[in-house]
Design a protein that fits this description.
Blueprint: E1 9-11, E2 19-21, H1 22-27, E3 42-43, E4 50-51, E5 55-65, E6 68-79, E7 87-89, H2 91-97, E8 100-102, E9 107-111, E10 116-120, H3 123-146
Parallel strand pairs: 1-7, 2-6
Antiparallel strand pairs: 2-7, 3-4, 5-6, 8-9, 9-10
């Protein structure tokens, strides 16, 4: 992505958005001036939370093998929170690349100018990211449970 190799990318055909996270955006050396206004908040990335994106950015994404590659411009919502992943490729990116995922084999294929590009997931990396994501979600849930709710505490006595 923009010349930086990202190893922790979740390919999620259930997501209606492509998401990049603000820390990775900064780590890639990208300027805030690239951000365009975003359309609306989203939820569901971290269970029980919602987020308003910092903005949208269009980035060049390349899938490649040394002898065969494909590059497309992809629009990402830049989220101001962290997950175990560097980015999430949702349906818009998958459609742009004409990806055919095969979840049982942890593989995806896409056409390119020379032939078909076949990419296989790193299963160990997948389980590491999945565990980190679950741990992060549990931590957020624990923080919510421990923080006092003000809804009933601020009600006048009757």
């Amino acid at each position: 992505m923009e010349g930086v190799r990202l190893k922790r990318v979740l390919v999620d055909r259930g997501s209606a958005l492509n998401i990049q996270f603000s820390k990775i955006f900064k780590d890639m050396g990208l300027s805030q001036s690239l951000l365009q206004p975003s359309k609306s908040p989203f939820h569901g990335v971290i269970p029980g939370t919602s987020s308003t994106p910092l903005g949208q950015v269009t980035l060049q994404v390349t899938f490649c093998k040394p002898d065969n590659f494909r590059t497309e411009s992809v629009v990402f919502e830049v989220a101001n929170f962290e997950t175990a992943y560097h980015a999430i490729f949702g349906r818009p990116a998958m459609a742009k690349f004409m990806v055919v995922p095969h979840y049982a084999y942890a593989m995806m294929k896409m056409p390119s100018p020379n032939s078909i590009i076949s990419l296989r997931a790193d299963i160990r990396q997948f389980f590491t990211c999945n565990k980190e994501s679950c741990d992060m979600a549990q931590s957020l849930e624990a923080i919510k449970r421990l923080s006092p709710t003000t809804h009933w505490q601020n009600q006048p006595a009757t």
